[in-house]
């Protein structure tokens, strides 16, 4: 026989063991008149326990085997409830000794029919395995006796509940409260079972939620014990019921005073000594008026708030459950506190990662679409030109005449390829910053020399100002790429016969490096996109293509270096890009 645990089965098994243990404890300490409530709950715990075991096995035969034990509790619970109601209401049955034995005739007959079902199929006509849910569940085709069992259970529960209501409808407030809770305790599982029988609501096909409803019933009856000392139950059982709750629970009376709480509630306070019997809600929630307002509403509502606990901020779900008497006054409120920090942070992280992945994927698609065009055109053009020259179709003189244009295209391809490789490296394995002391004057001049050729082809001059005797503390490769991209971008959008001004200003702990062109400028809409880190492409003054990848890398590298990037522009006047980088602290210069 194979057993595979699942959350539904495990919850039911553990809860049933707890309920069964408490029922035995309670039964040993009650007098005969009300001991049958413990018998009823014990029967329910047997039902829940073996139903939980049934949910762990994998074959129809194994499920039917454990179902036989399950039906011990299922058939006896309604009879126990009726006997409890008769004894608790004090109905005289001394002259009718046959009443109590007769109550158990139908349960015994039903159980015998279940045990021998294989020979007559009166209870189950057929069985099969339902595998549509997260674990196998027993499927049933009801036999002729199945409705008899359902009617018997409903009748006994309704009859017992009616006796309770009839006996105490005019009793004092104390007994009214007890009776209303007991009536609800009898009716709620019945309602859940009706929903199950008509297949109106099930987490998945074949799962019976009735045992879970009975567990809730027992918790409600336990609440009556806590509030009214129901059945003179001793405090130790009450303590066990509260302590098994994982959520923090605090019970307030109608004056807003604490009448009880469990140990889990102490976890939600900086100083657990503030939480004590008779403390005022106004006192303990002085810094959290939203919780106080929730308590004062005296309605079943939920609230999400933040609590600072031991230097950490917890996301907390607070549930208010009013304890009230119909048409009179609210006698108290139960506040339940649940720490949902992990859940909230996980959800936020997942949303953030999903957005970042989507943006990165969109950016990747965009870049590779542009790159495939911008790389393919020049490279294939050179390939075709070489082929034509080799075959004599293009003369050597014609080839030499085309070289300047080919060279210009290859310059743009080289910059594009360098940016692509840098971006790919950054995305695949991350980019590690290795700061060092750099002679900024030597570094900027070497980059100027590399880009002078591109600038001269557009009759643009590159002017340097303020770089003498300045040292930076930065990653050499990153800083070179930043400078190259800013200067090449300025050349791209500069008008012919203009200049690009590259300046450096020494601040207190940083250096401010600016690249300014006097070209077409950037529109307000595109400037907002750039400041928001949104990549887009535009063509240069000489129809140069672009991908937007260069500025993306500049922004990323500046951020990793601990610097800042600012952009100023006006249409028709030009654009100024400024970055800040740390100044060197060492006296040693590394070029």
TrEMBL record:
It is an enzyme of class 2 (transferase). Residues 370-585 form the Histidine kinase domain. Its EC number is 2.7.13.3. The chain crosses the membrane at residues 6-27, 34-53, 65-86, 98-118, 144-165, 177-200, 212-230. SUPFAM superfamilies: ATPase domain of HSP90 chaperone/DNA topoisomerase II/histidine kinase (SSF55874), Homodimeric domain of signal transducing histidine kinase (SSF47384). Keywords: Kinase, Membrane, Phosphoprotein, Transferase, Transmembrane, Transmembrane helix, Two-component regulatory system. Gene3D superfamilies: 1.10.287.130, Histidine kinase-like ATPase, C-terminal domain, PAS domain. InterPro entries: BphY/WalK/GraS-like, HATPase_C_sf, HATPase_dom, His_kinase_dom, HisK_dim/P_dom, HisK_dim/P_sf, HisKA_7TM, PAS. The keyword Transmembrane helix applies. CDD domains: HATPase, HisKA, PAS. It comes from the Bacteria. It catalyses: ATP + protein L-histidine = ADP + protein N-phospho-L-histidine. PANTHER family: PHOSPHATE REGULON SENSOR PROTEIN PHOR. This is histidine kinase. It comes from Algoriphagus jejuensis.
């Amino acid at each position: 026989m194979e057993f595979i645990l699942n959350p539904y089965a495990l919850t039911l098994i553990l809860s049933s063991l707890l309920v069964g243990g408490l029922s035995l404890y309670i039964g040993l300490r009650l007098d005969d008149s009300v001991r049958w409530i413990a018998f009823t709950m014990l029967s329910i715990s047997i039902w829940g326990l073996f139903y939980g075991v049934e949910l762990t096995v994998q074959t129809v035969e194994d499920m039917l085997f454990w179902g036989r034990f399950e039906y011990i509790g299922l058939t006896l619970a309604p009879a126990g409830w009726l006997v409890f109601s008769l004894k608790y209401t004090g109905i005289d049955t001394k002259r009718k000794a046959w009443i109590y034995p007769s109550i158990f005739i139908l349960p015994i007959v039903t159980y015998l029919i279940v045990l021998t079902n294989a020979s007559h199929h009166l209870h189950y006509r057929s069985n099969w395995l339902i595998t549509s849910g997260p674990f196998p569940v027993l499927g049933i085709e009801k036999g002729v006796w199945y409705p008899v069992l359902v009617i018997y259970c409903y009748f006994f529960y309704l009859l017992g509940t009616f006796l309770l209501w009839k006996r105490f409808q005019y009793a004092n407030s104390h007994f009214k409260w007890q009776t209303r809770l007991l009536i609800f305790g009898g009716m709620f599982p019945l309602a859940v079972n009706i929903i199950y029988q008509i297949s109106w609501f099930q987490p998945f096909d074949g799962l019976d939620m009735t045992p879970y409803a009975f567990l809730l019933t027992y918790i409600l009856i336990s609440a009556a014990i806590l509030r009214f000392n129901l059945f003179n139950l001793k405090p130790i059982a009450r303590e066990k019921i509260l302590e098994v709750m994982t959520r923090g629970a605090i019970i307030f009376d109608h004056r807003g005073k604490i009448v009880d709480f469990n140990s889990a509630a102490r976890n939600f306070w900086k100083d657990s000594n503030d939480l004590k019997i008779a403390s005022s809600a106004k006192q303990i929630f002085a810094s959290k008026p939203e919780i106080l307002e929730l308590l004062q509403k005296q309605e079943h509502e939920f609230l999400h708030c933040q609590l600072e606990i031991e230097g950490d901020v917890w996301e907390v779900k607070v549930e208010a459950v009013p304890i009230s008497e119909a048409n009179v006054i609210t006698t108290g409120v139960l506040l339940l506190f649940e720490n949902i920090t992990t859940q909230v942070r996980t959800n936020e992280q997942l949303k953030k990662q999903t957005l970042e992945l989507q943006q990165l994927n969109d950016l990747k698609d965009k870049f590779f679409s542009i790159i495939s065009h911008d790389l393919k055109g020049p490279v294939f053009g050179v390939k075709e030109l070489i082929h034509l020259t080799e075959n004599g179709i293009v003369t050597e003189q014609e080839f030499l005449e085309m070289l300047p244009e080919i060279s210009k295209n290859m310059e743009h391809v080289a910059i594009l390829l360098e940016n692509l490789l840098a971006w790919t490296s950054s995305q695949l394995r991350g980019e590690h910053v290795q700061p060092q002391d750099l002679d900024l004057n030597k570094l900027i001049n070497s980059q100027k020399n590399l880009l002078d050729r591109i600038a001269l082809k557009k009759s643009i001059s590159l002017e340097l100002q303020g770089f003498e005797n300045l040292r930076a503390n930065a990653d050499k490769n990153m800083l070179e790429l930043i400078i190259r991209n800013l200067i090449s971008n300025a050349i791209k959008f500069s008008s012919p016969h203009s200049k690009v001004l590259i300046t450096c200003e020494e601040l207190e702990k940083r250096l401010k490096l600016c690249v300014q062109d006097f070209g077409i400028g950037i529109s307000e809409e595109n400037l907002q996109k750039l400041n928001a880190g949104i990549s887009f492409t535009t063509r240069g003054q000489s129809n140069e293509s672009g991908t937007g990848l260069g500025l993306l890398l500049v922004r990323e590298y500046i951020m990793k270096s601990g610097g800042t990037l600012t952009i100023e522009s006006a249409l028709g006047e030009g654009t100024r890009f400024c970055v800040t980088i740390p100044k060197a602290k060492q006296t040693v210069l590394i070029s």
